[in-house]
């Protein structure tokens, strides 16, 4: 161990070692100089187990393999558990971790759970465990251009935020183990599964809480010719969503998942009463200017973060997420940077948006929260 004695090593277990679980494994390997090690994995899917085991062996990390999360918890090997299993399994796994006799800090992938009711149960259960930190993996906050735009907004350069527009134009959902992500019942729906990231960012930029949501969306192009166990996928592939906040600001999401022919996957615009800021991913460009200085006064900068040792699938944000969470654990912080309430509200907005499409009307956050 190059930095710390082995006794100070923070030991991680990863529950669910599909694509995202293995991404966490690689990120943690790149954090090894910070005194971390993955010591255990749990996954009932043997091909995923083998891929993760091969990775760990290539890192010279001896790891224990379990078929389920309960065995991993009962082994008492881990200080921290990363939950990167299919969305519909998060609730039971989180409840088992929170109720376990040994305290484990947790980083759970987004979305927190697939329903508001399950999110609320997890939030309430975790309140009784002051010996644990639970962070939700809303890692878009850490992407360098997004983080820079957050810094500009919070610094007051744009004035009071009035409008937040987020466009995600991208490729269709990837194939996952047993195609679990093709159905709303498993994923929570596209606007929960995919877009909780963006609803979290809207709330962060607006500095306010959501009040009501209006959405329009459909399945227009993707997955129409797919059939799994006799069922056709029901996940939408495009939508417009409007979110109104309690301080009068508004957010808008423009999602399209059949837009591979695009330069930037995400384009974020934040407009305040005195200025405007934009972030572009993956170009990693940030632009900002004021109404007074006009178009000629717009500044452009390349957003970079020298701390990132591994870019991975999310432009270094997963690496920074782990780095910040590790710091919170070591500092014995009372709360992580992205807490369970953040996870709950991001899911609630997504659920309200899905319901709005179904009902053809505005849906209040109060309606889905109760």
UniProtKB/TrEMBL annotation:
Query: Which Pfam families does the annotation name?
Result: GFO_IDH_MocA, GFO_IDH_MocA_C
- Domain named Gfo/Idh/MocA-like oxidoreductase N-terminal is located at 11-137
Q: Which InterPro entries match?
A: Gfo-Idh-MocA_inositol_DH, Gfo/Idh/MocA-like_OxRdtase_C, Gfo/Idh/MocA-like_OxRdtase_N, NAD(P)-bd_dom_sf
The UniProt record lists the Gfo/Idh/MocA-like oxidoreductase C-terminal domain at 151-364
Put simply, this protein is called Trans-1,2-dihydrobenzene-1,2-diol dehydrogenase-like
Concerning PANTHER family, the annotation shows:
INOSITOL 2-DEHYDROGENASE (PTHR43593:SF1), PTHR43593
> Which domain of life does the protein's organism represent?
Eukaryota
Any GO MF annotation of the entry: nucleotide binding
């Amino acid at each position: 161990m190059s930095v710390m004695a082995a006794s100070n090593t923070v030991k991680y277990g990863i529950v669910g070692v599909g694509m995202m679980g293995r991404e966490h494994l690689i990120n943690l390997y790149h954090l090894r100089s910070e005194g971390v090690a993955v010591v255990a994995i749990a996954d009932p899917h043997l091909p995923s187990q083998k891929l993760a085991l091969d990775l760990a062996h290539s890192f010279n990390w001896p790891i224990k393999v379990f078929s389920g999360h309960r065995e991993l918890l009962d082994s008492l090997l881990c200080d921290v558990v990363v939950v990167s299993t299919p969305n519909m399994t998060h609730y039971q796994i989180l409840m088992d971790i929170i109720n376990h006799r040994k305290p484990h800090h947790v980083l759970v992938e987004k979305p927190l759970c697939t329903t508001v009711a399950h999110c609320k149960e997890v939030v309430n259960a975790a309140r009784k465990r002051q010996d644990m930190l639970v962070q939700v993996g809303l890692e878009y906050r850490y992407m360098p251009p997004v983080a820079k735009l957050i810094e500009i907004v919070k610094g007051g350069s744009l004035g009071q935020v009035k409008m937040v527009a987020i466009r995600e134009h991208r490729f269709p959902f990837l194939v996952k183990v047993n195609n679990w992500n093709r159905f709303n019942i498993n994923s929570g729906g596209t606007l929960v599964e995919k877009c909780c990231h963006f609803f979290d960012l809207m709330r962060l930029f607006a500095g306010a809480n959501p009040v009501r949501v209006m959405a329009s969306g459909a399945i227009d192009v993707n997955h129409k010719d797919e059939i799994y166990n006799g069922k056709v996928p029901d996940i939408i592939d495009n939508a417009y969503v409007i979110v109104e906040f309690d301080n009068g600001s508004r957010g808008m999401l423009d999602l399209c998942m059949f837009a591979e022919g695009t330069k930037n996957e995400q384009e974020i615009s934040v407009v305040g009463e005195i200025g405007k800021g934009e972030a572009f991913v993956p170009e990693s460009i940030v632009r900002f200017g004021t109404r007074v200085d006009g178009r000629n006064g717009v500044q452009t900068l390349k957003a970079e973060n020298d701390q990132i040792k591994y870019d991975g699938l999310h432009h270094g944000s997963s690496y920074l997420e782990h780095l910040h969470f590790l710091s919170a654990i070591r500092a014995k912080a009372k709360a992580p940077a992205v807490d369970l309430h953040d996870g709950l509200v991001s899911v609630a907005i997504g659920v309200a948006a899905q319901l709005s499409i179904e009902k053809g009307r505005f849906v209040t956050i109060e309606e889905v929260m109760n």
